[in-house]
Design a protein that fits this description.
The protein is of the alpha+beta class and 170 residues long. The protein has a single domain, classed as Hypothetical Protein Pfu-838710-001 (Beta Barrel), CATH 2.40.320.10. It is 24% helix and 46% strand. It has 5 helices and 8 strands, in the order E-H-E-H-E-E-E-H-E-E-E-H-H. The radius of gyration is 16 Å and the shape is globular. The mean pLDDT is 93.
């Protein structure tokens, strides 16, 4: 997919039902745990560019540094530039501090990670907001899994977790 991600997030009413359907369609649960997210900026530079700089760690796994661009207009699913690379958590925090980037926001969520062919599906629980499901992959795969799960336009959540938690606009 290069340096773009295509995904769609949905509010999830029944996570147990979604898990059962994912299993039925051959999705494999590959991980579960707590994911921590830290968003950085330097004097509003990234926010002015409508870009998010995120440092994330899932469980005790390797950390990832991600640069996310603004959403593309007029796309059926959420599409945006995304450049992501595995990093050493402590070294990256030190580097960001040296570059005078500061943590603007932090949050954690419970995440279950599934793989269905080349498509990634996550089932997330976000305190105060409830359950969500994200499908990331090619548009055809997203549409197929969306249909299998019985999800539709009314179930979509267009806000990012950052926007939901902090009324962040980017």
């Amino acid at each position: 997919m290069g340096f773009f991600e295509i995904e769609q997030k949905y509010r999830l009413k029944d996570p147990a039902k979604a898990r059962a359907i994912l299993k039925k369609i051959g999705a494999k649960r590959i991980a579960s745990g707590v994911e921590t997210n830290e968003f950085y900026d330097r004097d509003g530079f990234f926010r002015k560019q409508k870009v998010a700089l995120r440092l994330r760690q899932f469980g005790r796994g390797p950390a990832k540094l991600t640069l996310k661009g603004p959403r593309a207009k007029k796309a059926r699913f959420t599409k945006r530039m995304e450049i992501e690379t595995p990093v050493d958590l402590a070294a990256t925090r030190a580097l960001l501090k040296f570059l005078e980037c500061r943590v603007l926001r932090r949050y954690a969520k419970r995440r279950e990670l599934y793989k269905c062919g080349q498509t990634v599906v996550t089932v997330d629980f976000l305190k105060k907001f409830g359950w969500f499901l994200e499908i990331e992959g090619e548009p055809r795969s997203i549409g197929k899994i969306e249909k299998e799960l019985g999800l539709g336009d009314g179930d979509r959540e267009e806000r990012s977790y950052l926007q939901m938690l902090f009324q962040w606009k980017h």
